[in-house]
Amino acid sequence: MRILVANLGSTSLKWRLFRFADGGEELLHKGGFERVADYPRAIDDCLAALRRGGAIETEADVDAVGFKTIIARGVDGCVRLTDPVLAAMEAYNGLAPAHNPPYITGIRLFARRMPRTPLFGLFETAFYQWAPEAAKRYAVPDDWHQRGVRRWGFHGASHKYIAERSAQLLGRDDVARRARNLYLDGGTTPVRTPDLRVISCHLGGSSSVTGILNGVGVGNSLGMSPQSGLPHNNRVGDLDPFALGYVMRSAGLSLDQAETALCQASGLMGLSGGDNDIRDIESRAAEGNARARLALDVLIHEARRWIGGYYLQLNAIDALVFTAGIGENDPLVRDGICRNLDQLGLLLDPALNQSARGRETVISAPESRVRVLVIPANEELVVAREVKRQLDAAA
Ligand code: ADP
Predict the structure, then answer these.
(1) Test site for ligand 1: of 209, 263, 275, 279, most ligand atoms within 8 A of the Cβ
(2) According to a count of CB atoms within 10 Å of the terminal CB, is the N or C end of the chain lower?
């Protein structure tokens, strides 16, 4: 069985093709295009690249296409992307303006280009379906709650991969199995004692922190929209809701202008005064730029605030995991986050931290009770596995 996972941006198309055979899973091909002006042509070129690379002979060899979809009203988990599901995504366009519209457009183009191939979406909110209600609830009037105003959480595919992979690395195959089967059985796969408690930090263009108990998400720092929680590259993170009305009235901004400022000129970019890539921010901070240093400090402070919350909720932890572009590659941010935690049993090994870039490794000191791990993100594999499960169930 071959499953294509397509990652859709407004001007980018990236893909990975997986083959599942005889209980094994294999990445057959990966590629992508940036600065795409003609999306239908980019899809043609993707399929041509798969044929040229020998990953498929004909397009009929692609059994399904999976998408890491973000959020839809009243829909969660891994589902077939029918017209009603696309309409439910459209209903929440305002919550994920950078993500939902390009996904809807791209999915429609794939459906037109590959009419006989089933298309599935694994929603990024899916990992938190079994989190405690208190972790998902905003203290708003009930009518707002009924309209969907709640802490949904995102980055579900990434944190689910960490839930499973960290358990394997910590010698807990039982917990890894529970994480793997989560969307099948709702976290009822039996596990041994003691509990395995992990905090996963996905730090990248978007960032979030998640607590994981025995392979199941107990909450996520992202809230109703992917604009909340930690500061992101150019999106705001958590903000007092009354700041919005205040700035609109005092600076004379429309709602659209205020939302655009929060989505495009805030986060690390707003703090640093123009940079949204952590590498540029770090080089300016090293040159003594105070705003760049502040951007790093806020990111680290906010990450620690969420880690602290899950640390308490989980009653201490066995492992802290770093993943995604910043988490995998940035010793400075990891060091800042792990500073001064010896009383909580966490000690980083400076040399291991310094040399860990983009590969799976342990970066805590041997005497650290909490293991600190770097695990490269593998969200597409999680999507492909869930799509395979859907195809198997339908067979
Ligand atoms: P996204 O959330 O958009 O998928 P990524 O997980 O790819 O993003 O993370 C992108 C961010 O990771 C970049 O903006 C940059 O700040 C950071 N990053 C990428 N590579 C490196 C690196 N080698 N060193 C430090 N930071 C990096």
Answers:
(1) 279
(2) C
Instruction: Tell me, in angstroms, the distance from the centre of ligand 1 to residue 389's CA.
Output: 31
Contact between 337 and 303 under an 8 Å Cβ cutoff? The reply is yes
Give the Cα separation of 381 and 28 in Å (integer).
12
The CATH number of 2-123 is 3.30.420.40
Which residue ranges of the chain lie beneath pLDDT 70? none
What are the sequence ranges of the domains in the chain?
2-123, 159-379
Stated pTM of the model: 0.96
Q: Do domains 2-123 and 159-379 have the same CATH topology?
A: yes
Please give the number of the atom of ligand 1 that sits closest to the Cα of 233: 14
Dump strand ranges (E) for 319-391: 319-323, 361-362, 371-374
104 and 82 in contact (C-beta within 8 Å)? no
Ligand 1 close to Cβ of residue 331 (< 6 A): no
Q: Which of 277, 280, 335 for a ligand 1 pocket mutation test, highest count of atoms within 8 Å of Cβ?
A: 277
Specify the pLDDT at position 97.
Answer: 87
Is the C-beta atom of 158 inside 6 A of ligand 1?
no
Fold entry, domain 159-379: Nucleotidyltransferase; domain 5 (3.30.420)
305: phi > 0 → left, psi -120 to 50 → alpha, else beta; which? alpha
Closest C-alpha to ligand 1, atom 2: 205
Residue type, 50: L
